Amino acid sequence: MAKIVTMGEIMLRLSTPNNEKFIQADEFDINYGGGEANVAVSLANYGHDVQFVTAIPKNPIGDCAVAALRKYNVGTKHIARSGERLGIYFLETGSAMRASNVVYDRANSAIATATPDEFNFDEIFADADWFHFTGITPAVSDAAIALTEAALKAAKAHGVTVSVDLNFRKKLWSSEKAQKVMTNLMQYVDVCIGNEEDAEKVLGFKPGNTDVTSGELELAGYVDIFNQMADKFGFKYIISSLRESYSASDNGWSACIMDGKTREFYHSRKYRVTPIVDRVGGGDSFAGGLICGLADGKDMKAALEFAVAASALKHTIPGDFNLVSRADVDNLAGGDGSGRVQR
Fold this sequence. Notes:
Oligomer: single chain
Number of domains: 1
Distance between the termini: 30 Å
InterPro entries: Carb_kinase_PfkB-like, PfkB_dom, Ribokinase-like
Keywords: Kinase, Transferase
Shape: globular
Protein name: 2-dehydro-3-deoxygluconokinase
EC number: 2.7.1.45
CATH architecture: 3-Layer(aba) Sandwich
Family: Belongs to the carbohydrate kinase PfkB family.
CATH superfamily: Ribokinase
């Protein structure tokens, strides 16, 4: 199994129960999660040796976040205990035509104030095979931008494969700043994951003569965007998830991938995911599945099918983490979507 490192913020998630609106709620359900932490849990569940790098305050809430990772066999020895607070996000889970809503309370969190000298990146990447980060981490603060680039430089110095999930978050930064920062960071990236909004808002790529409104109907637009990205950055693989949102409870889910060298393009099987239990973490579960497939040595088509199946399953699980096994994913990718009771 591969040794994989992810770095980012883990947060306390407070979500309204039973699809209630914030104004109705008298209590919140508690979970922990965050982009790179979610990927780490997925990969640990698949049996990989995973280390999560972050900064967490030295208090009982920080201890709970560490315990949430350890519960699922994610390595925590490189977590710095610093800063004054753990980031929080509030989730109002939508239903049918009512969209979900997220409110962040993460300003000046531990990871937002962390500095590179808190981490021994040479030790962290000494025997690592893969490093994954997202566009969320550099979006939280200027200090986090410097921290992310320091980690990327160390990863490349050690010959580590690097993947990014672009993950544009308009509540954290502007498209203009995202493009300035992330375009620079792409020099370190081998595998780029995102969707058409990420490609435009984070890197400034738009399809030529094709209006990308549906992954299923406008695949030519993705081919165009992927070619532009491969030309500019030389990515080994470019990948996009394709979500067709019929409602908050009913989505079509598939993905596409391009080999940056040969320009071979592949579109996966599509799943109809309904009713959705929790779509938060769906993209992270996709990234985790893709990294697992590629790290296992699967070809790009098999890796993509594993990732799409893994993410489809995540939509049925409450909380940020995808808690399915390899066997669960392989069964669905192999065609068993019946949902019959396993006895």
